[in-house]
């Protein structure tokens, strides 16, 4: 295929006249490049000092597969809509990790989780983690003049978590977000959170069982399950948070209709995977997706409002369940960007007096 055609066919937009602006990039973070076991106590050693270990956060790989599997031609997959667990169990697990973290790192029971989370990522950077944008942990408060207050925290690799409790103050919301992010950061270093050959085989087998597939499909890169296997094997050695950050791009492309449009342009699955596996989610991609929603709104009124309402429910459920939030939050941000584009277009067409 000529190079001049390739970028146009691999655009995230679904074809409403947007020009080709996509470029091949290698800007995804390869993750930790040296073992960081000496950095912090392992989850197992943390738990040893405070009773039974809390359950590690779920891998959530099935919902990730639903996005890329369906988007690459497998058919309907898991939507990723979260099912909040028992809030008391989640709170107990988070508090157990924070208490153990305090004992192992500072020698006393009380810990400033906001400082601890920043220190965790700073130590990863110091010990060799490849964090392209540095180790800064970023907090974002949801504007509100009264409780409950909500805070999101974005980790250096892009993963996002949010306050998972009722928070009467902004400071408490910030601490709540830091707690769930710290727990996930700690557990992400556990060997069970690395993509290995055994992990790949188990995940593919579960996908085959869930979608009534057969082994031949898993070995064929032109099938949805084969593409899923290809993604896992391409990311062997990475942690689940690193893999989830990559998969967020494909989830958004699927949600936006872009993967379907690429299939219609005769792009192969391998071609799409190879291109977007090396492209970070950036402002250009968000702007193109927002423009697609503007066009949908102009075709069918209230399309954006309905999608915003649905996305806000998903985001709320995922936040209260203590799940990783970037997919839901990026969806909402893209939709809000679309609202801004729509308002700007409407203002520009108003008659002047």
Low-confidence parts, pLDDT < 50 over ≥5 residues?
A: 1-9, 13-84
End-to-end Cα distance: 52 Å
Query: Strand share of the residues?
Result: under 5%
* Mass-distribution shape: globular
Helix content: 40-55%
Radius of gyration: 21 Å
Question: Could you spell the SSE succession in H and E letters?
Answer: HEHHHHEEEEHHHHHHHHHH
Number of helices: 15
Number of strands: 5
Largest sheet, if any? 3 strands, antiparallel
Can you tell me the number of structural domains?
1
The strands making up the biggest β-sheet line up spatially as: 3-4-5
* Overall pLDDT confidence: 76
Structural category is mainly alpha
Family: Belongs to the LIX1 family.
InterPro entries: Autophagy-related_EPG5 (IPR051436), LIX1 (IPR029270)
Protein name: Limb and CNS expressed 1 like
Provide key terms for this protein:
single chain; 353 residues; two-stranded antiparallel sheet; 15 helices; 5 strands; 4% strand
């Amino acid at each position: 295929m000529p190079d001049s055609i390739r970028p146009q066919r691999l655009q995230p937009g679904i074809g409403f006249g947007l020009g080709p602006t996509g470029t091949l990039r290698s800007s995804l973070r390869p993750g930790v490049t040296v073992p960081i076991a000496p950095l912090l106590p392992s989850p197992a050693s943390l738990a040893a000092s405070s009773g039974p270990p809390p359950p590690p956060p779920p891998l959530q790989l099935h919902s990730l597969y639903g996005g890329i599997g369906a988007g690459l031609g497998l058919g309907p997959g898991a939507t990723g809509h979260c099912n909040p667990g028992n809030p008391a169990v989640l709170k107990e697990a988070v508090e157990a990790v924070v208490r153990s973290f305090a004992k192992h790192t500072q020698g006393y029971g009380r810990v400033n989780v906001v400082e601890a989370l920043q220190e965790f990522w700073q130590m990863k950077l110091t010990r060799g983690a490849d964090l392209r944008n540095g180790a800064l942990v970023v907090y974002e408060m949801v504007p509100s003049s009264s409780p409950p207050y909500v805070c999101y925290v974005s980790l250096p690799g892009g993963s996002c978590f949010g306050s998972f409790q009722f928070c009467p103050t902004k400071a408490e919301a910030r601490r709540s977000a830091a707690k769930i992010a710290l727990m996930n950061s700690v557990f992400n270093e556990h060997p069970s959170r690395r993509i290995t050959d055994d992990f790949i085989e188990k995940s593919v087998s579960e996908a085959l069982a869930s979608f009534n597939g057969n082994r031949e499909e898993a070995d064929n890169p032109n099938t949805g399950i084969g593409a899923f296997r290809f993604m896992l094997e391409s990311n062997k050695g990475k942690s689940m948070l690193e893999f989830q950050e990559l998969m967020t791009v494909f989830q958004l492309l699927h949600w936006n209709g872009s993967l379907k449009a690429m299939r219609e342009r005769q792009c192969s699955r391998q071609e799409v995977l190879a291109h977007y596996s090396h492209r970070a989610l950036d402002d250009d991609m968000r702007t193109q997706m927002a423009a697609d929603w503007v066009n949908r709104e102009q075709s069918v009124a209230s399309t954006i409002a309905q999608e915003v309402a649905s996305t806000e429910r998903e985001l709320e459920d995922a936040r209260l369940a203590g799940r990783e939030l970037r997919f839901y939050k990026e969806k909402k941000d893209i939709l809000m960007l679309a609202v801004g584009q729509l308002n700007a277009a409407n203002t520009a067409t108003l008659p002047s007096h």
